[in-house]
Amino acid sequence: MTSPPIRAPETSDVERIKEIAVDAGMFEADEVAFFDVLLLGYLDGSSADHRWLVVDGPEGAAVAAAYWAPEPFADRVWNLYFLAVAPEGQGRGLGTSIVGHIERELRSLGDDVARVLIVETSSTDQYRRTRAFYRSLGYDEEARIRQFYGPGDDKVVFWKALAGPK
User: Fold this and answer.
1) C-alpha to C-alpha distance for 43 and 78, rounded to whole angstroms
2) Is residue 144 over pLDDT 90?
3) Do 78 and 106 touch, CB atoms closer than 8 A?
4) For the chain, which domains are there?
5) Which residues contact 58 (CB under 8 A, 6 or more apart)?
């Protein structure tokens, strides 16, 4: 398999990233306005330590996106806050390529910058495949916060060492 075209997003990608989040079933259309602030902070450089990427599909439009940043108040811990692949791109290894890209980028920053990557997701059946995906990439389920997102919907936190001993 050839590596997908991973690149930094541009202003013209903002609406498409929001569409991907909705199409992938992560958010409703009326919930994605906050992406404007996150992406514009990245694009104008005011959130310099926050990172975004997109993956272009065969037709040239983005089919996947990811957002990660340092975890506030933690020692060299980064959080993969958002990873979504549009339905037409799912099942092609894009998620695996993206996570690998992020891990390599963080490791390239050095042990003094990136030590751990965490990922948070939901405990609902809708995210069963997501949880299996992170386990398959070597992430350990580190924590579960009951009813975090709502009744019967726990926050599940996955953890992976980027540097030093586990």
Assistant:
1) 20
2) yes
3) yes
4) 6-161 (3.40.630.30)
5) none
Is the pLDDT assigned to residue 112 strictly greater than 60?
A: yes
Segments of the chain assigned E as strands: 6-7, 51-56, 62-70, 77-85, 116-122, 140-150, 153-161
Q: Read off the tokens for 79.
A: 């959080």
> The pTM is what?
0.93
Q: Note the Cα 99 to chain centre separation in Å.
A: 8
Express each pLDDT in 57-88 by its tens digit.
988 889 999 999 999 999 999 999 999 999 99
Residue for token digits 């409703």?
Answer: 28
Q: Is the pLDDT of residue 166 over 90?
A: no
- pLDDT recorded at residue 115: 96
Contact 78, 66 (CB under 8 A): no
Kindly provide the b/e burial profile for residues 20-48, where b requires at least 16 CB atoms within 10 angstroms of the residue's own CB: bbbbbebbeeeebeebeebbeebbeeebe
Strand partners of residue 119: 80, 158
